[in-house]
Amino acid sequence: MNSISNMWKHPRTSAAGLLIAIATVGGILSQQGITLGAAGTGTVVTLVSALASALLGLLARDPGGASSTGSTAKLGAWALIALLLPLPFITGCSGVTVAQDIVNWTPALQSAVTTVDSAASLLAPADAPIFMAATVGFDAASNLLVAQAWAYLANPTAGVLAELQAQIVTFQQQVNAALLKAAKVTNSASQQHALACIQSVATIVTAIFALVQSVSSKIAMARMATDSTIKLAEVTPYMDEAEAASVVAAHYGEPVCLARVQLARTLHAEAQAGF
Questions:
Q1: For residue range 102-160, what is the model confidence (pLDDT) as tens digits?
Q2: CB 3.0–4.6 Å: which of 113, 189, 190, 196 could bond 123 by disulfide?
Q3: How far is CA 266 from its chain centroid?
Q4: What is the model's pTM?
Q5: Domain total in the chain
Q6: Same domain for 102 and 42
């Protein structure tokens, strides 16, 4: 009875709790591939989750109705947590939408690989050969990934997706191996510069990887996880979280703090999936 009474006494908090639950359940259903039907270019689940998040944001910004400043702050904090739940690159969208998002990442990927190509000249003479050997396959891998991204956008079928899945795993493994090799460079300045350059590529590859995952079946994800021999847990200690978040934030035009939460959730989801 006390619970029911509290619901009527604190309607805004109760409404916020309900909206948080809707947004959370919607996110879980999307990750499990449950759509409840199509809604435009997305799904019913993602539409309902987005509406819940939007209403929660409006509720948190409403200055009236709160009994105290403290309760308003708490409500706003919970609203912020719920608003951070959706990921820009794991939202259960259609294959065409995901394909376009992957293609949108490719200019940044090519730019990052170009930076890697010119980085060796800035390293200590003894470290340059190590770096070049670690990153020698980046150009070919990125060019193939870009070509497959455009192919999937033009023809988002299971066969083309399978090729994209195989290539993103291959490229991610190359990047992970390069990070581990760069971490062994003894010159601190060279190591820092080498890791920073490779991480720029790694961040974009991770974002594309997550996009590919969002339209992949459980069987395909299990196969991709099996092919991923160098796990994310091995390389994340060598990555700068703030720098990675800034890359994501710049791409999606969002605050860095939001990108950091999204990136953390993405890495956690990939680790849970066996990557």
A1: 999 999 999 999 999 999 999 999 999 999 999 999 999 999 999 999 999 999 899 99
A2: 190
A3: 5
A4: 0.68
A5: 2
A6: no
